Amino acid sequence: MSFTVAIDGPAASGKGTIAKALAAHYGFAHLDTGLLYRAVGRRMLNGERPAEAALALTAEDLEGEDLRGPDVAQAASKVAALPGVRAALVDFQRAFARRAGGAVLDGRDIGTVICPEAQVKLYVTASDDVRAGRRLAELLARGLDVTREGVLEDIRARDARDSARATAPLRPAEDAVLLDTTTLSIAEALADAIAAVDAARA
After folding, report:
1. What is the residue extent of each domain of the chain?
2. Fewest Cβ atoms closer than 10 Å to its Cβ: which of 16, 58, 120, 171?
3. Which fold has domain 4-195?
4. Residue whose C-alpha is closest to residue 93's, from 114, 123, 120
5. What is the pLDDT of residue 70?
6. Which residues 6+ apart lie within 8 Å of 150 measured at CB?
7. Cα(99)–Cα(3) distance, integer angstroms
């Protein structure tokens, strides 16, 4: 029997951390759908057409530290606005969500487009400044030469592009549980997410 948890939200809101921890807590499979778009974005930066790159994705494409770099992140946001790319990746995501034993998917359109029938939908968010601080720490830890101002600008540009795109814009599902992590610790945010899943499974 399948059980799907759909987690959406903007960059650096904590959705990935929560998704991984939830999957581990319940023994569910986890898919960071953003990696799919990052992989397509990386292939685009290497000269491929986005839609063709999406159709040709392999498991190996989802590996590599450079997938988390700012250039790939911006490329991912751009290719994610292309209907052909999104259509190419929909079936993969939906099949993953229906797997036996449960699945947690995090991204930007999971509860609204990919899995509107998910048993649990969470929309994870946080203030721009807090998200910029989290992303800055992550990028500096990887040795990248970035500034807080630059990271904040990138995050706001991604938010604007992701929210304004015609196909599957970033927004909460009508029945999503809103989880604002601005002032929450990881443990507190995870506890709230677990409570939402437990309530749905009761």
Report:
1. 4-195
2. 58
3. Rossmann fold (3.40.50)
4. 114
5. 87
6. none
7. 8
